[in-house]
Amino acid sequence: METIKVMVEKRLLPSILNADFWKLGELVEATLRGGADGLHMDVMDGHFVPNLTFGASVVGAVSRRVNTFIDSHLMIENPTAYIPEFVKNGSNAVSVHWETERHLHRTVSLIKELDSQAGVVVNPATPVEFLRDILPFVDYVLVMSVNPGFGGQKFIPTALGKIERLKNLLVELGLEDRVAVEVDGGIKLHNVEDVLKAGADWIVVGSAIFSSDDPVEVEDNTKRFKEIISKYT
User: Fold this and answer.
1) I want to staple 86 with a disulfide (CB 3.0 to 4.6 A). Which of 8, 91, 127, 225 is the partner?
2) Strand (E) or helix (H) holding 14
3) Is the pTM of this model over 0.70?
4) What is the spatial distance between Cα 96 and Cα 94, in angstroms, rounded to a whole number?
């Protein structure tokens, strides 16, 4: 079985976790005006990670109002039970943690059967080499460059070597043009180029974009990241 071939392209995906939810609509629209290629949804259940955020209804509220790529990152236990609801509410891509799934191939297959792109996520202490057998079946891999659970954390420098090892593994398997490498956590203007040079394709940025609740500033922040990422396309 082969995964559906997708075009790997550079993407900037602002994470709404750090946005002021009172002004969420305005701020989402500001990121899109600034050139964002989609949105990243950090879904937390208070069990797998020590925080509680939002569910599929928030994804649905956003997807009904803006026409953009929506990437839902499920930091939750038993994600298989909730995947259909997230896809129904507009998730174009859904990722689950390697650490949560005993039957990862089955879960990835479910996501793809629902016509969504399937991703697998690894925590900072999980070797990317553990993914060798699932890589032919996924559309993207999300490398966490912070410990999941909270926004605003500092980037873990060893993630750069991890991204490189993942990229090398994809090359070894002949999947470098079919499987995107996504990176999430602590990415700022001063280190985003390091992440891109290491091999990242999809860049998730939270607090560095939503550091203000002013839509003009959010749009400007997005443009700054997009200008850098565009140099690597």
Assistant:
1) 91
2) strand 11-14
3) yes
4) 7
User: The dihedral of CA 90, 94, 100, 106: what is its sign?
Assistant: positive
| Domain spanning 11-230: CATH superfamily | Aldolase class I (3.20.20.70)
Domain boundaries, the chain: 11-230
Catalytic residue among 71, 139, 184, 201: 184
Q: Provide the CB-side half-sphere exposure for 227 (13 A, CA).
A: 7
Percent helix, strand and coil across the chain, each rounded to 5?
A: 40, 20, 40
- First-to-last alpha carbon distance for the chain, in angstroms, is 30
Marked catalytic residue, from 42, 71, 139, 201: 42
Mean pLDDT, the chain cut into blocks of 10 residues (233 residues total): 55 95 96 98 88 90 96 93 96 96 94 97 95 97 88 88 97 96 96 97 96 96 97 89
Is 184 a catalytic site residue? yes
Instruction: State which H helix or E strand residue 51 sits in.
Output: none
- The answer to whether 115 is a known catalytic residue is no
